[in-house]
């Protein structure tokens, strides 16, 4: 039996302009800067980079593009025409970077010599940084593809299987958070309260009382936010309960930099309908999922 019968597909199109808090942020970043962020309002890969810009305090101009129409200006910064892309306007011809995780690394490096901000644990603790990067690796290789498999699954059987996979992936992330907390904070070995506090900060809002997002928090928040809105609506998904987990999600979604990049719920519901009914030619990500290939 098909749960998401094609009959239910109302044919909504993806949005092409931010709404809500994100639109306020777009307007505040409309003037020319050295760096232009090419983004699309619905895109979670863009949102992670956008949040990093906000937290790290790096100046940028936000430029909305339609990655499905692949305008030349986007292809010039991102060879496959995928958002996000960065253009560095001070160079002639301009330089560019694409790939959300690469851009995140770039922003972290840039901030270390400019704004002096960071979303990783202190460099003196290479192991803590490694554990946080392990969390982010899990997000990219497990949680993100599981999200798309779930939203694109059409039969009841496939939806149940993909829902389990998505839950298992979230549990895997939580285990990695617990491991970092145990090995970095609980086992001691720090030189004092100052070092302990900066390590706590680097482990992000999983740690109760922390208010700053970590590298892994930023990497994962856009998909969990879409899961809460879109998977709940189209798949009857329920977030894991548990006080600790809910506390983490609350701190994640309420973080000012995250909220500042969120559009209204309706924008996500409309923009993901094509994934929920697995419409042909939805996106390169959707095609890769359907063909069992790695994401572009
Ligand atoms: N691996 C890329 C993926 C980016 C991506 O897939 N972006 C989507 C929007 S959410 C896109 O540009 N899609 C255009 C297309 O599928 O043609 C990254 O991490 O930046």
Automatic annotation (TrEMBL):
<dbReference type="Pfam" id="PF13417">
    <property type="entry name" value="GST_N_3"/>
</dbReference>
<dbReference type="InterPro" id="IPR036249">
    <property type="entry name" value="Thioredoxin-like_sf"/>
</dbReference>
<feature type="domain" description="GST C-terminal">
    <location>
        <begin position="125"/>
        <end position="284"/>
    </location>
</feature>
<dbReference type="InterPro" id="IPR036282">
    <property type="entry name" value="Glutathione-S-Trfase_C_sf"/>
</dbReference>
<dbReference type="InterPro" id="IPR010987">
    <property type="entry name" value="Glutathione-S-Trfase_C-like"/>
</dbReference>
<dbReference type="InterPro" id="IPR050983">
    <property type="entry name" value="GST_Omega/HSP26"/>
</dbReference>
<dbReference type="GO" id="GO:0005737">
    <property type="term" value="C:cytoplasm"/>
</dbReference>
<feature type="domain" description="GST N-terminal">
    <location>
        <begin position="33"/>
        <end position="115"/>
    </location>
</feature>
<dbReference type="InterPro" id="IPR004045">
    <property type="entry name" value="Glutathione_S-Trfase_N"/>
</dbReference>
<protein>
    <recommendedName>
        <fullName>GST N-terminal domain-containing protein</fullName>
    </recommendedName>
</protein>
<dbReference type="InterPro" id="IPR040079">
    <property type="entry name" value="Glutathione_S-Trfase"/>
</dbReference>
């Amino acid at each position: 039996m098909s749960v998401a019968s094609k009959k239910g597909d109302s044919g909504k199109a993806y949005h092409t302009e931010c709404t809500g808090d994100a639109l306020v942020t777009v307007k505040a970043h409309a003037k020319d800067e050295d760096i232009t962020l090419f983004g699309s309002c619905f895109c979670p890969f863009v949102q992670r980079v956008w949040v990093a810009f906000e937290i790290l305090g790096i100046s940028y101009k936000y430029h909305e593009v339609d990655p499905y129409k692949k305008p030349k200006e986007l292809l010039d910064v991102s060879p496959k025409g995928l958002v996000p892309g960065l253009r560095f306007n001070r160079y002639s011809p301009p330089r560019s970077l694409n790939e959300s995780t690469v851009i995140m690394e770039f922003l972290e490096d840039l901030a270390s010599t400019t704004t002096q901000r960071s979303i990783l644990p202190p460099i003196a603790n290479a192991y803590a940084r490694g554990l946080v990067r392990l969390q982010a690796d899990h997000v990219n290789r497990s949680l993100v593809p599981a999200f798309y498999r779930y939203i694109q699954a059409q039969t009841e059987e496939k939806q149940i299987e993909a829902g389990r996979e998505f839950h298992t992936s979230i549990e895997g992330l939580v285990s990695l958070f617990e491991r970092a907390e145990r090995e970095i904070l609980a086992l001691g070995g720090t030189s004092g309260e100052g070092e302990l506090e900066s390590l706590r900060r680097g482990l992000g809002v999983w740690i109760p009382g922390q208010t700053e997002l970590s590298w892994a928090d930023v990497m994962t928040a856009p998909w969990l936010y879409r899961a809460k809105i879109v998977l709940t609506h189209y798949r009857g998904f329920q977030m894991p309960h548990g006080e600790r987990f809910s506390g983490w999600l609350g701190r994640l979604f309420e973080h000012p930099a995250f909220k500042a990049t969120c559009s209204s719920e309706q924008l996500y519901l409309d923009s993901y309908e094509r994934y929920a009914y697995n419409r042909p030619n939805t996106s390169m990500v959707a095609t890769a999922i359907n063909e069992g290939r790695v994401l572009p």
